């Protein structure tokens, strides 16, 4: 995503400015190691480009930046649930306005921290008190950490994901390894399937890989690079691409958009909210993804 043509709202430092696209403010980072963008709507990473490379993150050319709809592409923050196990789908975090807490920079890169807490609108969806932080570290690699804390007087249960869209030259030529031998296939009534250790796509995919390796590798021969996704705090990795028919049904994705991305997600998966992870008062949890080429 080209952030350089967007109007500047304010300059925060030599490396960090606030720009605006339509109705959404974006924290824009320009550092000698890499450039990046993080939308305050959704706490949503929309770009990460290491020096001398193409963007590692895919954004839809028709994503809607109205400050209401979830952004299509980037790294949506799916919390406090993942999937359609409650409404809205994938939780409220990706549709909420996050606050810029702090930013700091040195010779290695820039760290930006965003925050989200409960408000009247959120309490109507989810009645629990929480404190969420999104820490985005932009160096030669991208590290995104979702840190949530239970600041309520009772326990609550949740799931979530960092729903990364990886930017590829051609989905048909990409090869994925490190996903592990077993997955839950959402397209086959959540059947548990033993699969191969290597994946080349030719159709729609929506799978929860339950035993991923530490590093998931996506070979992209068209861009002559291999993307590495390293996750922590997860219990699975979700891989998703809607293919042609799915893309055509989405108003915020070009019909051919599916050809140039693959979602590889750091996921705390649960079939229902009740079966998710429980946090006691005062406890914290972190979900993390690191993306590099």
Overview of this structure, please?
The protein is mainly β. The chain is built from 2 helices and 24 strands. The protein starts with 7 loop residues before the first strand and ends with a strand. It comes from Vibrio japonicus. This is Putative glucose-6-phosphate 1-epimerase. Keywords: Isomerase.
Question: What is the gist of this entry?
Answer:
By secondary structure, the protein is mainly beta. It has helices at residues 120-125, 243-248, and strands spanning 8-11, 16-21, 24-30, 34-39, 44-50, 77-78, 99-106, 109-117, 130-138, 142-150, 156-158, 160-162, 165-167, 175-177, 182-185, 191-194, 198-199, 205-209, 215-220, 225-232, 236-241, 261-268, 277-279, 284-292.
Structural descriptors:
293 residues, mainly beta, Beta-galactosidase, Chain A, domain 5, 9-stranded antiparallel β-sheet, 8-stranded antiparallel β-sheet, 2 helices, 24 strands, 4% helix, globular, Putative glucose-6-phosphate 1-epimerase, EC 5.1.3.15, isomerase, GH-type_carb-bd, Gal_mutarotase_sf_dom
Helix-strand layout with pairing:
Elements: E1 8-11, E2 16-21, E3 24-30, E4 34-39, E5 44-50, E6 77-78, E7 99-106, E8 109-117, H1 120-125, E9 130-138, E10 142-150, E11 156-158, E12 160-162, E13 165-167, E14 175-177, E15 182-185, E16 191-194, E17 198-199, E18 205-209, E19 215-220, E20 225-232, E21 236-241, H2 243-248, E22 261-268, E23 277-279, E24 284-292
Antiparallel strand pairs: 1-2, 2-3, 3-4, 4-5, 6-12, 7-8, 8-9, 9-10, 10-24, 11-23, 12-22, 13-22, 14-17, 14-19, 15-16, 15-18, 18-21, 19-20, 20-24, 21-22
């Amino acid at each position: 995503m080209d952030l350089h043509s967007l109007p500047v709202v304010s300059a925060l430092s030599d490396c960090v400015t606030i720009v605006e696209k339509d109705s959404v403010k974006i924290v824009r980072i320009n550092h000698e190691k890499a450039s990046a963008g993080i939308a305050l709507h959704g706490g949503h990473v929309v770009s990460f480009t290491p020096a001398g490379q193409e963007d590692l993150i895919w954004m839809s050319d028709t994503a809607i930046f109205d400050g209401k709809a979830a952004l299509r592409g980037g790294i949506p923050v799916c919390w406090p649930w993942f999937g359609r196990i409650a409404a809205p789908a994938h939780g409220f975090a990706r549709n909420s306005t996050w606050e810029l807490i702090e930013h700091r920079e040195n010779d290695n890169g820039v760290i930006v921290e965003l925050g989200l807490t409960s408000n009247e609108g959120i309490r109507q969806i989810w009645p629990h008190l929480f404190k969420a932080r999104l820490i985005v570290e932009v160096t030669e690699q991208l590290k995104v950490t979702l840190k949530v804390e239970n600041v309520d007087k009772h326990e609550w249960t949740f799931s979530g994901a960092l729903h990364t869209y990886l930017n590829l030259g051609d989905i048909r030529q990409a090869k994925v390894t490190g996903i592990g031998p077993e997955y839950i296939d959402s397209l086959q009534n959540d059947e548990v399937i033993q699969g191969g250790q290597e994946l080349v796509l030719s159709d729609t995919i929506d799978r929860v890989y339950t035993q991923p390796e530490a590093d998931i590798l996506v070979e992209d021969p068209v861009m002559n690079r291999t993307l590495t996704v390293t996750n922590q705090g997860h219990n699975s990795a979700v891989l998703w691409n809607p293919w042609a028919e799915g893309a055509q049904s989405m108003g915020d994705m070009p019909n051919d958009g599916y050809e140039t991305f693959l979602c590889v997600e750091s996921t705390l998966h649960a079939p229902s909210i009740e079966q998710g992870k429980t946090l006691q008062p005062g406890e914290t949890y972190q979900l993390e993804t690191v993306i590099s080429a």
